Amino acid sequence: MKWNIGSPAPLPVDHTAPVPPHPVPSSSSNIPASCPMHQSTPPPPPSAPAPAACPIKHDALDPNTHMPANLSLSRQPNQQLELPVERTASTIPRPAAGSPGGEAYGTGNTWDYPSPQQFYNALVRKGWETPEDSVEVMVAIHNFLNERAWDEVMKWEKRLPGGENTQLVKFQGRPGELSPKARFHLWAGQLFPSKFNSEPPFDRHDWVVKRTVQSASNSNPSVPPETYDARYVIDYYSAPPDEDGNPVFSLDVRPALDSFEAVKQRVVVGVEEWWRGQEVD
């Protein structure tokens, strides 16, 4: 699905068409393309040698988010601008507040997004030089794309029993790893550039969700409902800005082929999309 940052509504998109190269809007020319909060390795600094050891203590990472368990709200030593420290609650349900993970979880029934100050601290931690006046725009885009990704996940989940109660359990950014589908599209794009993607996604996330199913035949409230986990792969693509200069992004969200149920859903939805395309033609 293709999304315009300047509009809450999805744009029509042909899923068989190639995704254009990643544009760099003039208002954010120094903004890194991929999500900094989930990058596992920063790009090497242009004038400094790579550090001898990883600067992030992995035993201090939240295993459910692969982010520092407690994101600092403190200003950086050479920081010039005052960045907001207030966090924004998402609409994405999360497990109970008693789950481990510290501040990275938030405090309510939904996941909390990092504040601009926390976001900037994560960028500094990863060695990225980022204009401070761009951080709030980056956070807005980051949050917007997460909300749209969750909307797409729920379109899949609501097709299944208990899907309306699905929660996001954990997630991981994997920007250096192409998904099998993205790799296939790149290979096919070399042969059929008018039909398949010719540019790789600028980011990839893997999200694990949990849905709870209460059997209709089980009327005993003391018997706990069954829970099912499912992994979703999200490839993030950039498209050219719209006529007003707003950035446009395309998200490819689908269940990972980890189970027979996921394979069946992918086949069913693929046939439905093909059939709708035939009707339009």
UniProtKB/TrEMBL annotation:
Q: Which reaction does it catalyse?
A: holo-[cytochrome c] = apo-[cytochrome c] + heme b
Tell me the enzyme class.
lyase
GO CC, sorted alphabetically, is: mitochondrial inner membrane
**GO molecular function, a single term:** metal ion binding
EC code: 4.4.1.17
The ranges of region (Disordered) come to 1-110
Mind telling me which PANTHER family this protein's record contains?
Answer: CYTOCHROME C1 HEME LYASE, HOLOCYTOCHROME-C SYNTHASE
Q: What is this protein called?
A: Holocytochrome c-type synthase
Q: Which organism is it from?
A: Cryptococcus floricola
Q: What are the leading ranks of the lineage?
A: Eukaryota, Fungi, Dikarya, Basidiomycota, Agaricomycotina
